[in-house]
TrEMBL record:
Gene designation per UniProt: LOC105902643
CDD domains named in the record: UP_hUPP-like
Domain spans labelled Nucleoside phosphorylase: 56-306
Entry-linked InterPro entries: Nucleoside_phosphorylase_d (IPR000845), Nucleoside_phosphorylase_sf (IPR035994), Uridine_phosphorylase_euk (IPR010059)
Name of the protein this chain belongs to: Uridine phosphorylase 2-like
Residues engaged in binding substrate: 219, 221
Binding site for phosphate: 96, 140-143
One GO MF term attached to the UniProt entry: uridine phosphorylase activity
GO BP: any one term: nucleotide catabolic process
GO annotations of cellular component type: cytosol
Family: Belongs to the PNP/UDP phosphorylase family.
Length: 313
């Protein structure tokens, strides 16, 4: 069956106005060539509209291997022709990020932390712009530490908050602090949550996600090489986070939300929790269990994509 491409609202509608991607950089227009250095792609060396013009879903996650596995999984889920071994890394000219395309789905790794994902997002958003893409949905599929919820729970982010529980992302630009909103697309989160409720094997929660710039002390862990606080202080901070609606902690959501919001891209953050931070800091769950947990955000987003493409009802 040929996939029907539906608009952002999931409807076939000729009068529908396509949401436009806003790349907010006036300097780009005067550049003769744009080299997307960390992707090893460029506007003169590659035909970006031909390579990427049909992209409708961009899924990003920390690890290159996980994003290759996701691309292979989506290839099967979409019933695309050909062998999954033929899915190759579009960014093979660099080992900074990995990128795989299967039909309208682009799967890209972003590494760990705000600086790494921010570089990837600048180049990915310019890539979509140069390729003339519109009506694109973006998903971060990640792992996280849970607060007060069972390991293996998938958290769909309501608000991405900083370590003071504020829904904002602060960036220093030319020596000044610039504050950007981390608003995510509420409809996308609601739609994901609706599909999750139809998947009983997928425990899901909508909650706030706290983004930190460190995995250890920055997330209140007692098991790093350094620790400057007591167990009681750790628990008090996590409790404050819980009371502020935070249900998981990771390291990329605020900049992801802020950049997508500024560029008018509909975006959602879907992370599985690997542990409950009230029970400890070390991730001691067996590898096979962690692998199954990491498949959960992928299953939910695959369901979303198949529904949007009209492959399932
Ligand atoms: C989740 O997991 C990584 C740290 O282990 C980090 O990238 C994140 O956000
Ligand atoms: N990723 C994080 O950032 N924190 C965790 O506790 C687990 C995964």
């Amino acid at each position: 069956m040929a996939p029907i491409l539906l608009n952002c609202a999931g409807k076939e509608d000729e009068d529908y106005i396509k949401p436009q991607l806003h790349v907010k950089n006036p300097h780009l227009d005067s550049m003769e060539e744009d080299i997307l250095y960390h992707f090893s792609l460029g506007t003169k060396t590659h035909n970006l509209p031909e390579m990427f013009g049909d992209v409708k879903f961009v899924c990003v996650g920390g690890s290159g291997n996980r994003m290759r596995a996701f691309a292979k999984f989506m290839h099967q889920e979409l019933g695309l022709p050909g062998n999954t071994d033929e899915i190759t890394d579009i960014c093979e000219g660099t080992d900074r990020f990995s990128m795989y395309k299967v039909g309208p789905v682009l799967s890209i790794s972003h590494g760990m932390g705000v600086p790494s994902i921010s570089i990837m997002l600048h180049e990915m958003i310019k890539l979509l712009h140069h390729a003339g893409c519109h009506d694109v949905n973006l998903f971060r599929l990640g792992t996280s530490g849970g607060i007060g919820i069972s390991p293996g729970t998938v958290v769909i982010t309501d608000k991405a908050v900083d370590c003071f529980f504020r829904p904002q992302f602060e960036q220093v630009i030319l020596g000044k602090v610039v504050i950007r909103s981390t608003e995510l697309d509420a409809d996308l989160a609601k739609e994901l949550s609706q599909y999750a409720s139809e998947m009983p094997e997928l425990p899901t929660f909508i909650g706030n996600t706290m983004c930190t710039s460190d995995f250890y002390e920055g997330q209140g862990r007692l098991d790093g090489a350094l620790c400057s606080f007591s167990t009681e202080e750790k628990v008090e901070y996590l409790r404050k986070a819980y009371n502020a609606g935070v249900r998981n902690i990771e390291m990329e959501s605020t900049v992801f939300a802020a950049m997508c919001h500024m560029c008018n891209l509909k975006a959602a953050v879907v992370c599985v929790t690997l542990l409950n931070r009230f029970d400890g800091d070390q991730i001691s769950t067996p590898h096979e269990v962690l692998t199954e947990y990491q498949q959960r955000p992928q299953n939910l987003v695959a369901q979303f994509i198949k529904k949007r493409l009209g492959l399932i009802v």
